[in-house]
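Teaching note: in complex prediction, the entire set of molecules is handled at once rather than each chain in isolation. The prompt given to students was simply: 'Predict the structure of this complex.' The entities are:
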Amino acid sequence: MVYLTRLEHFNAAHKLYNPNWSKEKNEEVFEGCANENWHGHNFDLYVTVKGEVNPETGFVMNLKDLSKIIREHVIKKVDHKNLNLDVDFMQGKMASAEVLIVEIWKILEKQLPQGVFMHALKLYETARSFVEYYGE
Amino acid sequence: MVYLTRLEHFNAAHKLYNPNWSKEKNEEVFEGCANENWHGHNFDLYVTVKGEVNPETGFVMNLKDLSKIIREHVIKKVDHKNLNLDVDFMQGKMASAEVLIVEIWKILEKQLPQGVFMHALKLYETARSFVEYYGE
Amino acid sequence: MVYLTRLEHFNAAHKLYNPNWSKEKNEEVFEGCANENWHGHNFDLYVTVKGEVNPETGFVMNLKDLSKIIREHVIKKVDHKNLNLDVDFMQGKMASAEVLIVEIWKILEKQLPQGVFMHALKLYETARSFVEYYGE
Amino acid sequence: MVYLTRLEHFNAAHKLYNPNWSKEKNEEVFEGCANENWHGHNFDLYVTVKGEVNPETGFVMNLKDLSKIIREHVIKKVDHKNLNLDVDFMQGKMASAEVLIVEIWKILEKQLPQGVFMHALKLYETARSFVEYYGE
Amino acid sequence: MVYLTRLEHFNAAHKLYNPNWSKEKNEEVFEGCANENWHGHNFDLYVTVKGEVNPETGFVMNLKDLSKIIREHVIKKVDHKNLNLDVDFMQGKMASAEVLIVEIWKILEKQLPQGVFMHALKLYETARSFVEYYGE
Amino acid sequence: MVYLTRLEHFNAAHKLYNPNWSKEKNEEVFEGCANENWHGHNFDLYVTVKGEVNPETGFVMNLKDLSKIIREHVIKKVDHKNLNLDVDFMQGKMASAEVLIVEIWKILEKQLPQGVFMHALKLYETARSFVEYYGE
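The expected output is the structure of the full assembly:
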């Protein structure tokens, strides 16, 4: 079993804002992240899959195919977008890295070829903070 | 003459949109960057000053002072903000990295202690693109 | 269960020196790291916690709180310090990255809010060498 | 149990080419990687070992010894080499990162001192793609 | 005058070998880089152009256009190629970073739009070595 | 004229302390950097030389020779050392990055082969602060 990871990027706007709370409570909890006019990040998404190595190709899976799956099913929905307003799978949810990574997992786990499995997602929001998810 | 550089970060939303143009022309020129609901970046700002080395301190200037100047006069105005909507010195201007770096220069060059001079600004919008300005 | 990581930095001096050994044996085993006048590093400390995502905040825990815990309980004790001489929790111990990471774990695991658990520590001593600890 | 990691580099040429396939099929599957005149990479190899911390040294093992093992048994065989033509342990195998990492594991696991065990290998082929192996 | 930089990557094989010299002299001068079976690198190419900021776009030039110029005129000729064998503009020349950067300059300086000028090229061969060229 | 840069590392302890000042004034000016028991850094030193490209080698100068010069004349004097106590060329001087870079320049400019000239030094003290020197 070998683990293969591909990094893809996206740049998006968001805010952390709970509509069930007052503006004051939002600012107290989320501070600058609650700015009503949004802020944004360069997100780095590492997708790790695992599988046996195919002796004919030497691959767990073709990296170009993995890249294509991530771009088509995730990146084109979030890149140069507003995570709160523009992204169908984030509607009605908090636009945090934690929530986003779980939703991205749900999308990607349906797209892998037979014999290849999701192992981990790692999502950098800044160079000093990131979240990871292993599907459970 | 020694050159001293400090890196500070900010996370901001923006869009590239010329209000004198049609939506179609904006999208043709700026593509995803014209998204009306904004997108955003982790900006990295390198500020380089130059001066003689003070033999008593070994410093061109105290790095903590340089950091404080950048934070008070620039970072707190742009961090977790919308560059188009929230930033006084960007009102009525295109919110591009090129325009932003020139405006930041104008602010910082007034704040340096005697005998220390602005040399360069370098502003990363993504890991693969940045602008530089030398004041002329 | 989502994993949340925060990076904090500290700059410290240390030496690797076993007081029960001769100077010669120390230099044989630790080479330059045994220099009696110390050397030092920029240490990078990654703290990873895990927990359920709170649907009201979208957070495992507030990243600002995690940062504050690390700074108050670890960074302010080691930053711009001598690990052998200045740090209470390192007294009488070898000032290696391995020993340091285990001691940092003991401190941090007592400081997390309910429902959030330590998962991993990762401590870079140089860009080419680091240690990890998972609490067991 | 603490985990200790050392990064070593090597620069090598390779191509991805299955000699049992036609040139057309190779180019269809491997695209540019099948270029008959080779291409190459700066490979980054992270070797992670685990063990108890020796209280006399503060070490899982001496990092200089770990570095020496990796350099003597792996790096000198692959650095500034052609992975398909020059490397004994890759003869007759696909020169992919997946195959290479498994072969490197087989070599390194025989070289560790008593009480120290291989935990993981991580091999970057580019800044955006890497493989990992845990020995099973 | 603002300076705009774009980073593009390519992965290539090469060797350093002067055909007018003996094999022994090549190995003495170029050591491992003279390996007759090639080695390779992940090259990072930073292209810096300069110009006035267009007030209608906020741009020195459109970054997407700069990227396209670099990819079409340079990257597609060198990526996943052998610099000695496959690249027309390197025929009969030493395949060093110094020679390569001067040849890339000659290509790119003919491709820029009016009012935009080449300022600098920076070419990383490894993370620890790079060359720069300013056209003179 | 092509510019060639080599990066070398060293890990050192130091403190910023002016012996002509009171302890209080030192702590007021240098804060944590004045800690009497030292602190330390992983320093990154970029050495940039310039020259014509030799058509026989394709080199400004052999990178291995440049590396050897830096290591023999600078790195072995500062690596795993105390900049205030152990380094001959820093005796009686403030151990700041600014002072250090000027002293390193004086050493290196005497060591280059004919036709190759020092262009710049860049010395990182942390990932967020560095100094540069051009010899004047």
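Point out the following to students. The first strand of chain B starts at residue 2 and ends at 14. The two ends of chain B are 20 Å apart (CA to CA).
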